[in-house]
Amino acid sequence: MVINESQLYREYQMNREQAKLIVNKFNRSNLSKKGKAVLYLKSELEGKVKAIVSKEAYIMGDNIPVCELEGIGIAQLDKIEPY
Which pick of 14, 18, 45, 78 has the fewest CB atoms within 10 Å? Predict the structure, then answer.
């Protein structure tokens, strides 16, 4: 069974090392470039909206991988997809 990143967030509490791996993977990808358009899952009802990356990903608190998006603010990486 393959576990994807979004399942990591929901299945169990991830530790800091797992969060670092997710942040590093995101920052190495093309998604992390400032000004890059991405899709952000606002909510199940509102759906996905186009957003612009304003800062590289980082870990908030002990173990939450996040990225800053223009017009939205801080967003969890599991809610961000390529545009």
Answer: 45
Number of Cβ atoms within 10 Å of the Cβ of 72: 15
pTM confidence score: 0.78
- Dump strand ranges (E) for 4-46: 37-43
What CA–CA distance (Å, rounded) separates 80 from 67? 9
Average pLDDT on 49-60 reads 94
pLDDT confidence of residue 33: 85
Cα dihedral sign, 8-9-10-14: positive
Max CA separation in the chain (angstroms): 37
CA–CA distance, 83 with 15 (Å, rounded to integer) = 29
